[in-house]
Amino acid sequence: MIITYLGHSGFLAELEDVYFLFDYYKGEIPKLQKEKPLIVFVSHRHHDHYNRKIWDLRKEYPHVRYVISKDISMSERMRQRFSITEEDLKNILRAAPNQIYEMDIWGKTALKIETFRSTDEGTAFYLTCGKHTLYHAGDLQLWLWQEEGEEWNRDMRNRF
After folding, report:
1. What is the distance between the alpha carbons of residues 85 and 95, in angstroms, rounded to a whole number?
2. Domain of life here (predicted)?
């Protein structure tokens, strides 16, 4: 497995049979093999975890799928803006927290996706793919802030 850091919370993981792109925000995505499946994960809608350029990847990579947090709009207006067709929707999984999803990667590999509720917004992802296990937290973190006071911090500790 090769992991490439793309900045902030963005990572590209390359496995033998598939690429996983997590929370792409900025930086250059390395050139990928077009025949290898690409699965794009977006943990939540904040601009530093979700760059709308991910929708352009469909033009360059024919085997792309998306796993996006349910807090990301898929309204008709948004679909029109990014030319997302009914056929494209078949390759978009809208992931809710605290769920388990299974995905067949074009008949090659089985992918199990477990999601967890973030302490901020959206989801964290725990993946099992063949012999590999990956975890991407998104904004799941113990957010403790002195300026927020003890009640806030106690609630955050409980949620974490």
Report:
1. 19
2. Bacteria
CB 24 within 8 A of CB 7: no
- Let me know: does 94 contact 115? Beta carbons within 8 Å: no
- For 36, which DSSP code? S
DSSP letter assigned to residue 87: H
Here the tokens at position 137 are 């937290």
Walk along the chain (160 residues) and give the pLDDT tens digit of each residue. Answer: 999 988 778 899 999 999 999 999 887 888 999 999 999 999 866 566 677 789 889 999 999 999 999 988 788 998 898 888 999 999 999 999 999 999 988 777 789 999 988 767 778 899 999 899 999 887 656 555 677 777 766 765 666 5
Distance CA 55, CA 99 (A): 24
SS3 89: helix
Give the predicted TM-score (pTM) of the model. 0.81
CA angle 141, 143, 144 (to 5 degrees): 145
